[in-house]
């Protein structure tokens, strides 16, 4: 006997108006937050050239602090596009940052390029671990990455014990004024050229690399295919397991790079602060959501994630500039996400249009 499917399939077609809204909404949210700050924060748009021949000002400061979130948000966009999630990026960033500090403070320290390569390799391996749990053991992405999120924070607390004289949870400080190697490491990420900080060029390079992988190779098509319909992708000859392994490994690598940026910025490595108090994974996920990439998988928006990360950082800056409690920034971030998600919802916009039409009739 033939039965009817009561639940209609969700249409994958996106109208031109819907696509335009999804593209412009993140930018509109950022512009709105900027306008609010222009009125509430004095000298918000001021820029000046300092003694180091680099641009300084509130906008540059916001950009500096946003770079780790931007790097992680780029990779998180691809992860979410496969209907996954990576809750371990904050923990991986903490492991990478603390590892770099331990290697720099060793009695016989390694060269900086080798230290960076080791930290990035650890991040990629951590991402592969997540990918294997998801693809081989069939653990849900939320639970698989939650395991590393919890364990990774503990590992970041234990790593300082490998340095003689340090205890668990110790804050490792880089002596920039005394040790040339420490100064060279921090200058690599904190220095600048041609008016802008080096980390801006690094983020630009990561944006171009991610865009090239996602839009100029088959990888982006594979990611969208797996996120849209993994079974159909399998029938088309796409190995979903390899795609997921790649995106999670790339997420781990980007998280490790973010950890290096944070360590160089603060000239210290505190596994507790990076892994627990900074809420890196929450900021990254919220940035991707604001950017218009849905948890339903499939289509993704790299430019939107970049704008979303900047929006999150501006919101946090506004709270810090007013001297308010950290809880206010979390509440504001959640409010912005709710508003953006409602506006992105076609069903919500249709219901609002119907209500307005009834009132005008």
Structure description:
The protein has 361 residues and is mainly α. It has a domain at 55-277. It contains 15 helices and six strands. It has a two-stranded antiparallel ribbon with strand order 1-2. A hairpin with a 2-residue loop joins strand 4 and strand 5. The longest helix has 27 residues, at 240-266. The model is unreliable at 1-16 (pLDDT under 50).
Side-by-side strand order of the widest sheet: 1-2
How many β-strand runs?
Answer: 6
* Class by alpha and beta content: mainly alpha
Count of discrete alpha- or pi-helical segments spanning 4 or more residues:
15
User: Measured on Cα atoms, how large is the radius of gyration?
Assistant: 22 Å
Helix/strand order, N-terminal first: HEEHHHHEHEEHHHHEHHHHH
Helix content: 55-70%
Average pLDDT reading:
84
Poorly predicted spans: 1-16
For the biggest sheet, the summary is:
2 strands, antiparallel
* β-sheet strand percentage: under 5%
What is the global morphology? globular
Distance between the termini: 47 Å
Strand and helix layout:
Elements lengths: L15 H25 L7 E2 L5 E2 L1 H24 L7 H16 L7 H24 L5 H18 L13 E2 L6 H11 L1 E2 L2 E2 H18 L2 H11 L1 H6 L4 H27 L1 E2 L1 H7 L2 H11 L11 H20 L4 H19 L1 H15 L1
Antiparallel strand pairs: 1-2, 3-6, 4-5
Properties at a glance:
mainly alpha, two-stranded antiparallel sheet, 15 helices
In short:
The chain is mainly alpha-helical and 361 residues long. The protein contains 15 helices and six strands. The chain has a two-stranded antiparallel sheet with strand order 1-2.
């Amino acid at each position: 006997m033939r039965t009817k499917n009561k639940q209609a399939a969700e249409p994958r077609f996106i109208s031109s108006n819907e696509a335009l809204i999804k593209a412009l909404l993140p930018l509109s949210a950022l512009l709105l937050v900027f306008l609010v700050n222009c009125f509430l924060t004095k000298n918000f748009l001021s820029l000046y050239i300092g003694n180091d021949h680099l641009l300084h000002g509130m906008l540059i400061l916001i950009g500096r602090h946003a770079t780790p979130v931007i790097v992680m948000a780029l990779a998180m966009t691809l992860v979410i596009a496969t209907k996954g999630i990576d809750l371990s990026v904050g923990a991986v960033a903490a492991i990478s940052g603390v590892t770099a500090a331990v290697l720099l403070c060793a009695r016989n320290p390694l060269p900086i390029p080798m230290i960076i390569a080791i930290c990035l390799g650890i991040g990629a391996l951590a991402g592969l671990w997540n990918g294997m749990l998801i693809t081989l053991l069939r653990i849900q992405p939320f639970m698989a990455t939650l395991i590393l999120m919890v364990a990774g924070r503990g590992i970041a607390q234990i790593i300082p014990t490998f340095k003689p004289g340090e205890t668990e949870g110790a804050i490792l400080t880089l002596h920039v004024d005394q040790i040339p190697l420490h100064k060279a490491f921090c200058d690599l990420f904190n220095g600048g050229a041609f008016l802008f900080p080096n980390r801006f060029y690094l983020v630009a390079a990561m944006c171009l690399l991610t865009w090239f992988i996602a839009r100029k190779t088959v990888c982006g098509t594979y990611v969208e295919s797996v996120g849209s319909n993994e079974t159909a992708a399998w029938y088309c000859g796409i190995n979903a397991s390899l795609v997921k392994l790649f995106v999670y490994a790339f997420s781990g690598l980007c998280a490790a790079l973010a950890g290096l940026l944070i360590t160089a910025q603060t000239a210290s490595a505190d596994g507790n602060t990076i892994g627990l108090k900074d809420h890196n994974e929450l900021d990254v996920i919220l940035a991707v959501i604001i950017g218009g990439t849905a948890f339903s998988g499939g289509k993704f928006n790299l430019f939107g994630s970049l704008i979303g990360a900047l929006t999150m950082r501006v919101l946090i800056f506004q709270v810090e500039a007013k001297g308010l409690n950290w809880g206010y920034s979390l509440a504001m971030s959640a409010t912005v996400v709710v508003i953006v998600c409602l506006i992105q919802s076609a069903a919500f916009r249709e219901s609002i249009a119907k209500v307005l039409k009834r009132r005008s009739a």
